[in-house]
């Protein structure tokens, strides 16, 4: 349907379904979901003129003297919200944020991803993304306490999250967000949900919707869902596994090559794309792993990437090539394993696409494939094989990000500068804080 036809569909549905509230969603620069609700009477005006709001009250937007912003709902994202069935129907739409002059706002993450996506599309490449989201169900939001002690794919009476996963999946499917599967993940109380492929912006929308529905379902059952990357010291943390492939305008997978020499089915284009991801991963780590806690997860234990590596059967690789269906062209993809579920998905997809496209543009060569045995090598030996370390903490990530020309180009000056300053403040605050670990280790000894 055309843009106008989508608007007509929304207006007709709102009237026929007696929808009383329409929530307009967008994110701040850090990826936190924001919302305002309008009535059906204001919907046509919202499509035509936008809804005004105070941009100075949103993190990373504008100073007080430039506070007027407009939210324009995207009719393609219209969906009924699947909760509160006993109340008047509520729908939602994601918004693009614009200035009063009608220009895309430089601090709008969704618009930024759209720009990078459109730049790639002009060259004949369409980015498809699928996402695997891990998270913990905990007893409450005060002190992290486990709900179960089940393990990977376990189906036992001790997996209390079965009903929560089922209700979340059903809610997502009611919103036309297809779920491939949900499961109990590796750690106690850790769960996962795999969202089916979609174009990049739609997938980012779906991730934000899934994060909200997961929390809503847990809250309804009297529990708490946490996307914190590493809530416990002695058990694995949570990832956001990002599957990517480039398609042409006819829907052909450009990452697939029949009878390729490496036996993976990877085209030369895919190899250049992966090489770009590997080269620029240390520079975009601040986006994919945005918090102090993010780097507590990125420690070697067999399935977490710590170096710029790629591989097929190696789940410690930064980029893994899934080979479940090696002869199926549409299944050929890469899996980026470093991001965590607290990242802003719009920005994460924007910077990884920019990195991959730079790899294609410059014809970057793919280093040797990393194997399980490479985990045992020293850092010097790994560097000799062109396997460079990822940042070990937020401070290292900041240093690499600040020097990156590509990140400044991909994000734009507004978002780049805000994130740099905000994360410097966060790192300094953490660096000066005295932790429980320090008190236990040093207090009585001095």
Automatic annotation (TrEMBL):
Signal peptide: none
A single BP term in Gene Ontology: glutamine biosynthetic process
GO molecular function, one term: glutamine synthetase activity
Coiled-coil portions: none
Classification via Gene3D superfamilies: Glutamine synthetase, N-terminal domain (3.10.20.70), Glutamine synthetase/guanido kinase, catalytic domain (3.30.590.10)
InterPro entries xrefs: Gln_synt_N, Gln_synt_N_sf, Gln_synth/guanido_kin_cat_dom, Gln_synth_cat_dom
All copies of domain GS catalytic, residue ranges: 109-446
Domain GS beta-grasp: from-to ranges: 17-102
Keywords, in A-Z order: ATP-binding, Ligase, Nucleotide-binding
Family: Belongs to the glutamine synthetase family.
Protein name: Glutamine synthetase, beta-grasp domain protein
Organism (species): Atopobium deltae
